[in-house]
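Researcher: I'd like a candidate sequence for this fold, 268 residues long. If you have to choose between options at a position, lean toward the conservative one.
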């Protein structure tokens, strides 16, 4: 397969990636034929995937706006993805021009495009690192320069833990990140479930096995356990459109069709 000019040299263009599939479902153009091919197969058996991604992205935007309202001005966004409409630094720096953001992703296309977008922005950086290696993120020179771990930080792990299999111990990882955050910090999380839309999500999981990022769906109880050590803010654990919607119409009659749980917690 031909490598487009904009593709970083170290990117795997033979196998679809979660970052580029997500970009494809959101209507972006930073994806390869291999991603589009798998994306079309997923959409054929799980047409809800367009809503899963769009509603997840809308949750992220509302969560960041909420966190800004709480006075948070530091964000660590792990599994940040390829920049698209409503990026975290855009929302946060609109609310507070001094807000600081560290984006982290292990997908080279995501990091390269974040770097491009952030050129000339002194308060936001992107690093290529893996959620499963907390020390490489928490101890990264750029993280330490950008974020003050003596003041509240919002950790965003939105739509990323479902790419972490049980064998990589997601709860232990969540605990490690929690321990690094000072009191008053927040955690925003969303995660695919099979509690609703079970058949479509099952088919999606089957197809994502052919990508670089196999998916593990988790139940409401498993999702809630990731907030151990945090106090959930209202409305608690809900489907993405139900989390502080801007209007009742945004929730619609079947919020469970988003297939993604969402919540925000505060570390006491
Ligand atoms: C579905 S996208 C979500 C993007 C963004 N957080 C959002 O919710 O709009 C998931 C992102 O997580 C990244 N990702 C998956 N596994 C990761 C890991 N182990 N470490 C860092 N990033 C990871 C993928 O590359 C992808 O960009």
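Model: Candidate sequence:
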């Amino acid at each position: 397969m031909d490598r487009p000019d904009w593709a970083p040299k170290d990117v795997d263009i033979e196998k679809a990636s979660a970052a580029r599939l997500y970009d494809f479902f959101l209507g972006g153009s930073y994806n390869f034929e291999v991603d589009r091919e798998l994306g079309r197969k997923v959409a054929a058996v799980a047409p809800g995937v367009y809503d899963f991604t769009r509603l997840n992205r809308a949750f992220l935007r509302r969560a960041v706006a909420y966190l800004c309202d709480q006075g948070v001005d530091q964000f660590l966004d792990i599994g940040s993805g390829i920049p698209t409409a409503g990026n975290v630094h855009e929302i946060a720096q609109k609310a507070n021009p001094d807000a600081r953001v560290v984006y982290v992703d292990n997908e080279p296309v995501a990091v390269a495009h974040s770097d491009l977008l952030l050129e000339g922005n002194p308060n936001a950086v992107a690093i290529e690192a893996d959620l499963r290696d907390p020390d490489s993120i928490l101890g990264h020179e750029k993280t330490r320069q950008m974020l003050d771990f003596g003041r509240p930080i919002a950790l965003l792990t939105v739509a990323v833990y479902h790419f972490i299999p049980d064998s990589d111990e997601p709860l232990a990882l969540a605990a490690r990140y929690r321990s690094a955050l000072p009191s008053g910090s927040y955690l925003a999380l969303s995660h695919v479930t099979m509690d609703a839309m079970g058949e479509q999500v099952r088919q999606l999981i089957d197809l994502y096995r052919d990508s670089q990022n196999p998916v593990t769906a988790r139940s409401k109880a498993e999702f809630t356990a990731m907030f151990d050590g945090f106090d959930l803010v209202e409305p608690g654990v809900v489907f993405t459109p139900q989390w502080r919607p801007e209007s009742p119409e945004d929730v619609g009659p079947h919020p469970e069709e988003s297939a993604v749980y969402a919540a925000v917690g505060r570390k006491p």
